[in-house]
Amino acid sequence: MPIPERLNPTFASARQPVVDLVKEARKRLIVALDVPDAASALALVAELENTCQWFKVGLELFIAAGPAVIKPLVARGHSVFLDLKLHDIPNTVAGAVRSAAALGVKMMTLHAAGGPAMLTAARAALEGIAERGELEKLPELLAVTVLTSMDQAQVKAVGLGRSPGEQVELLARMGLEAGMRGFVCSPQEVARVRSLTGPEGVLVVPGIRPAGAAIGDQKRIATPAEALRSGASFLVVGRPITQASDPAEAAEAILREMAEALEAPALEA
C-alpha cells in the first residue's frame, strides 16, 4: 500500500532552492505538545503556527484536556498526530481507533507489542470506516516498536533477551505481516526499519536532539539531520522547541538543519 499523498514528503535534490527545502522540512517536523493543559497547548501553537504545520497530542495533554483539544488545532488547519500508544485487547483497540479517527487526526499510534491480532483489528476498524464512506481521509496507523527511553538495561528489565534494535526489527516484521505500513522507532533503528518497509513505509522518529541539546530521559537519540539521512519520514521534537526561550526560533533552527539534510543527494528519490 503506497503512502497517501498527504503523508508522502518528497525527497529534495541538491539543486532545490533553500526556501523550498525549508518548506519541505515543515511537512516533516512534528512538535510535541507535551504540556499540562489546553491553554498552554493553544498558546504554544499560536507561537509556532507560522513556523510549524504538525503538532503531536500525547497522553499528558489528552488526559488533561480530552478530545476537545484537537478540534481547534484541526480548525486552524494544522495536522494532528495523536500519540496515545493504544495497547489493549483487539476489540477495545478497534473501538478506540474508530473514535480517534472521527476526531480528524492524520496519524495515531498503537503499541506493536499488543500483538498481531490487535494490529489487525485496528487496521480492520479503519478499513470498515473507509468502506462505509464515513471519512474523506483516514488517519495513518503507526505501530510503536520500542520506546526511545529504553536502552539495553530497560529492555532486559522487562524480560526481553534481545537488544533494542533486535526487538524493533522483530516488531516491525510482525507489524508488516499484520498489514501495518507505519512505524515509530528511534533514530538508531530507522535505517533497519526502512530496509524492511521500503519507500512506502511511514516512519515517525522521536528521540531527536539537535547538537548541544539536553538529552533528558531519552536514550536512543540522533540529530535531525542524522535521522532524516537514515530514512525517517517525520521527526518528533518536543523539549528542544517547547522549552526553548524562543520556541519559534528553535523550530526554525531545526528546520534549517533538516533542510540541509534534505539537500543531500543520497536522499534523492
Lay out the secondary structure.
Blueprint: H1 18-26, E1 29-32, H2 38-48, E2 54-58, H3 59-65, H4 70-75, E3 79-86, H5 90-101, E4 107-111, H6 116-132, E5 140-144, H7 152-157, H8 164-177, E6 182-184, H9 190-197, E7 202-205, H10 224-230, E8 234-237, H11 239-242, H12 247-262
Parallel strand pairs: 1-2, 1-8, 2-3, 3-4, 4-5, 5-6, 6-7, 7-8
Helix pairs in contact: 1-12, 5-6, 8-9, 10-12
Main pleated sheet: 8 strands, parallel, barrel
- Would you identify the CATH architecture? Alpha-Beta Barrel
Kindly identify the CATH topology: TIM Barrel
**Structural class, please?**
alpha/beta
Number of strands: 8
Low-confidence parts, pLDDT < 50 over ≥5 residues? 1-6, 10-14, 265-269
CATH class identity? Alpha Beta
Q: What kind of oligomer do you see?
A: single chain
Features:
single chain, 8-stranded parallel barrel, disordered N terminus, 269 residues, alpha/beta, TIM Barrel
Brief synopsis:
The protein is built from twelve helices and eight strands. It is α/β, with parallel strands linked by helices and 269 residues long.
Give a description of the structure.
- It is a single chain.
- Helices cover 43% and strands 14% of the residues.
- With 269 residues, the protein is of the alpha/beta class.
- It has a single domain, classed as TIM Barrel, CATH 3.20.20.
- It has an 8-stranded parallel β-barrel, surrounded by 5 helices.
- Helix 8 packs parallel to helix 9 and helix 10 (224-230) runs parallel beside helix 12 (247-262).
- The longest helix has 17 residues, at 116-132.
